[in-house]
Amino acid sequence: MDWDKLRIFHAVAEAGSFTHAGEVLHLSQSAVSRQVSALEAGLKVSLFHRHARGLKPTEQGELLYRTAHEVFVKLAMAEARITENKDRPKGPLKVSTTVAFGSVWLTSRIKRFVNLYPEIEVSLVLADTELDLSMREADAAIRMEPPRQPDLIQKHLLNISYHVYAAPEYLEERGIPKTPQDLDAHDLIVYGDDAKPPIANLNWLLEVGTKDNKKRRPTLKVNSIYGIFRAVQSGLGIGALPDYFIREAGNLVELLPELRGPSINMYFVYPEELRRSKRIVVLRDFLVSEMSSTIMT
């Protein structure tokens, strides 16, 4: 198979259309279409179902895409290893983590890392869905649960505790709860039904201190911890938040300090083949250093 045609086919399969692939490749739509048609003619099979909404790989197209994708992933890894400087870490470094942790904690510190290692090209992907590190959708990840894939290395970073917080303006208006039972008279902000928190029972505020574990009715449900944080910060009500939020948003007041919610373990995760990558090593060490000095464990 012609390598250039295979490269164009891979881009089309990823983009789902000739037009979008052409934009990525800086080629015209007609040039992309011709190359794919020539590849199909050479293989004597159809690689795509063509319809009004775009392109969908055929069974043969899906097989070729998976194989080509593995090849391009391995080539990207080889390129990264070859270009990485022997003395100074350099090259692209794509890091995935949750929207909340990335927005509140990581992005405010990444400047120090970039200043320390200016030749590393950092790219952050903030999403509450896990990227496939083995397929190099990212080089490394900061996750709130251990990886399920056996070919990934994990480094435990810290244990995150949840505490109860409210904004000063809310407490001025509604008063300060002195006991868990006092939460019955307050507005509570919790995870929504559509949320997928890393561990169960993160809505423990609805039950703690109630009779017969009867749940309180929340004022607001949100499907992300970052949304809960912003709602609490605005003065809407009381919420349970992880330690790292509070170190960044010093205006919140801790309530009922004797209460402790569920704990979450945070991990730095990366593929086995990047074990000796200097970019991975320096990022890991940077995270360990920053967390030991800024987050309570």
Task: Describe the model.
This protein is an alpha/beta fold and 297 residues long. It has 2 domains: 3-82, Arc Repressor Mutant, subunit A (Orthogonal Bundle), CATH 1.10.10; 87-297, D-Maltodextrin-Binding Protein, domain 2. It is built from 10 helices and 11 strands. The chain has helices spanning 3-15, 18-25, 29-43, 59-83, 99-106, 110-116, 168-174, 225-233, 243-248, 278-294, and strands at residues 48-51, 54-57, 91-97, 120-126, 140-143, 152-166, 188-191, 220-222, 238-242, 253-255, 263-271. The strands form 2 sheets. Strands 3, 4, 5, 6, 7, 8, 9, 10 and 11 form a 9-stranded mixed beta sheet that branches. A hairpin with a 2-residue loop joins strand 1 (48-51) and strand 2 (54-57).
Rounded to the nearest angstrom, the distance between the terminal CA atoms is 55 Å
Share of helix among residues?
A: 25-40%
What summary fits the major beta sheet? 9 strands, mixed
State the domain count: 2
- What is the averaged pLDDT score? 86
Structural class, from secondary structure content? alpha/beta
Which regions are unreliable across 5 or more consecutive residues at pLDDT < 50?
A: none
Q: What is CATH's topology name of the largest domain?
A: D-Maltodextrin-Binding Protein, domain 2
Show the helix and strand layout:
Layout: H1 3-15, H2 18-25, H3 29-43, E1 48-51, E2 54-57, H4 59-83, E3 91-97, H5 99-106, H6 110-116, E4 120-126, E5 140-143, E6 152-166, H7 168-174, E7 188-191, E8 220-222, H8 225-233, E9 238-242, H9 243-248, E10 253-255, E11 263-271, H10 278-294
Parallel strand pairs: 3-4, 3-5, 7-8, 7-9
Antiparallel strand pairs: 1-2, 5-11, 6-9, 6-10, 6-11
Helix pairs in contact: 1-2, 1-3, 1-4, 2-3
